[in-house]
């Protein structure tokens, strides 16, 4: 695999853009300032190198309890958040971020070594922009970030278009949010399919598990309906 980096005019000063070539596929990775929150320092150093090769500037925070302080120290474009941390879990950090007004809108991708449970998907699914399964491969991680950046760019373009059309800021913001929500619902729908396959493979059909999957399906369907209603009023 080869990585080619260059400076391109028309972007902010110092912005580096990369082409990652892998099996004749080229992923264009737009520069982002990333905060990686993970209590495994060795893995953090490895991920930092991988992200640097993709042209991203990455800071590391290995103490979950200090996450908000690290976020405020230098506001990132994107947060990569590990879930399996102690004594403060990634889910707790996520809740802190989303309940803190000055950082609540920062995109978060969670890093996890397992498929999300239906309960986790229902409770936290709409708080994130995506998730990446561990162990991480360079192309997989960089492509996930590239995909999220494209969604963020699309959502900002939709916001600007809504403002230009005369929509008030709060309704334009709803149009922007709908683009991001639609993206995470695709992740959750895929996660639901994986859960159903696991259930089928294990031959486990307890009422509790079936009920939790039903709850996840209902949540996804409800959120899709909300998005549809919002987008009907967006230019």
Report on the structure:
Helices cover 52% and strands 18% of the residues. With 235 residues, it is an alpha/beta fold. It has a 5-stranded parallel sheet, with helices on both faces. The chain has a 3-stranded antiparallel sheet with strand order 1-2-3, covered by helices on one side.
The parts where pLDDT drops under 50 for at least 5 residues are 1-29
SSE order in H/E notation? EEEEHEHEHEHEHHH
**Helix percentage range:** 40-55%
Give the number of DSSP strands.
8
How are the secondary structure elements laid out?
Layout: E1 2-7, E2 16-22, E3 25-29, E4 33-37, H1 41-53, E5 57-61, H2 67-73, E6 78-82, H3 90-98, E7 108-112, H4 118-124, E8 130-133, H5 138-164, H6 169-202, H7 207-231
Parallel strand pairs: 4-5, 4-6, 6-7, 7-8
Antiparallel strand pairs: 1-2, 2-3
How is this structure best summarized?
The protein is an alpha/beta fold and 235 residues long. 52% of the residues lie in helices and 18% in strands.
Features:
235 residues; alpha/beta; five-stranded parallel β-sheet; 7 helices; globular; disordered N terminus
